[in-house]
């Protein structure tokens, strides 16, 4: 099936997304890979709005209370995926601590709508921590995503400064529980470098992620969105990224993408298909 829109025509794609009231992380995070991903038939959609209830100091999302999830969003999402002829979709959302289930039911409906209508489509879902709710995580897994992702982001010592409201141990527990509930679904996580972490701390995080059977890992460089965000403490070299990738493979990760411009959804289709 040929795309109705040319995937290289970013302006027309953005117009479609606005007409359908859809958000993409590609735009909201000012991702440097937006052209490459749109052009390869992948996209990362952000459901339940673009306002987050937490205040991570590195994130470019707006903070505050968002509107209730739009019940029409799953159908709008389906229309966009059909129109763009996408074959791999990543779904994510802002953290919605204001919702009793953290938005799990809505995420379930989005995944199910896509999978029920487009059986060939692969869906990766990048979830928040749901405040540690097993019930919420299980609901998302019931929809049968092809990959379950949750980003660890940084080392434990920096969580209070970088990931306010989140807990390192809680994120590890979510990844571990996902493998217990749905061992056939690959799990994925991401690290962002440059907040002031130490090399030995990064090694410990890699070991921790493998201890909960995380299989896919992305590692990228943090770039400060504005002067009000967390400053960049260090820019890593190409060689350092390569060393981290090599170490991750040695520890047992099945697929790793590591480099300055790598983001959590970068080459998501490629990483998942090669498992």
Describe this structure in words.
The structure is a single chain. With 275 residues, this protein is α/β, with parallel strands linked by helices. It has one domain (10-273): Aldolase class I (TIM Barrel). The protein is built from eleven helices and ten strands. The strands form two sheets. The chain has an eight-stranded mixed β-sheet with strand order 1-2-5-6-7-8-9-10. A two-stranded parallel sheet has the order 3-4. Helix 9 runs parallel beside helix 10 (238-251). The radius of gyration is 18 Å and the shape is globular. The chain starts with 9 loop residues before the first helix and ends with a helix. Mean pLDDT is 85; it is low at 1-8.
- Look at the structure and give the mean pLDDT: 85
Strand residue content: 5-15%
Order of helices and strands: HEHHEEEHEHEHEHHEHEHEH
Please describe the biggest sheet, giving its number of strands, its sense, and whether it closes into a barrel. 8 strands, mixed
Tell me the radius of gyration: 18 Å
Poorly predicted runs: 1-8
Q: In which range does the helix fraction lie?
A: 25-40%
Distance between the termini: 26 Å
Q: What is the CATH superfamily label? A: Aldolase class I
Please count the helical segments. 11
CATH architecture label: Alpha-Beta Barrel
Number of strands: 10
Q: Name the structural class.
A: alpha/beta
Strand order of the largest sheet: 1-2-5-6-7-8-9-10
In one word, what is the shape? globular
CATH topology: TIM Barrel
């Amino acid at each position: 099936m040929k795309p109705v829109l040319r995937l290289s025509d970013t302006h027309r794609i953005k117009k479609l997304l606005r007409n359908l009231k859809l958000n993409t992380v590609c735009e909201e995070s000012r991702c440097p890979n937006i052209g490459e991903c749109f052009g390869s038939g992948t996209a990362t959609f952000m459901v339940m709005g673009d306002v987050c209830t937490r205040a991570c100091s590195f994130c470019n999302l707006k903070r505050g209370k968002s509107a209730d999830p739009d019940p029409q969003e799953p159908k709008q999402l389906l229309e966009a995926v059909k129109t763009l002829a996408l074959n791999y979709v990543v779904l994510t959302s802002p953290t919605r601590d204001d919702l009793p289930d953290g938005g799990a039911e809505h995420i379930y409906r989005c995944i199910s709508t896509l999978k029920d209508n487009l059986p060939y489509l692969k869906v990766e879902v990048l979830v928040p921590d749901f405040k540690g709710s097993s019930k919420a995580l299980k609901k998302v897994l019931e929809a049968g995503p092809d990959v379950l992702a949750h980003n660890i982001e940084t080392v434990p010592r920096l969580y209070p400064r970088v990931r306010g409201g989140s807990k390192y141990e809680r994120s590890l527990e979510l990844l571990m529980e996902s493998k217990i509930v749905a061992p056939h679904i690959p799990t994925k996580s991401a690290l962002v470098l440059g907040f002031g972490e130490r090399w030995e701390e990064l090694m410990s995080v890699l070991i921790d992620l493998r201890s909960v059977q995380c299989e896919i890992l992305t590692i990228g460089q943090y770039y400060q969105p504005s002067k009000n965000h967390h400053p960049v403490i260090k820019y890593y070299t190409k060689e350092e990224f390569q060393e981290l990738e090599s170490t991750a493979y040695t520890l047992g990760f099945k697929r790793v993408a590591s480099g300055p411009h790598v983001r959590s959804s970068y080459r998501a289709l490629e990483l998942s298909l090669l498992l």
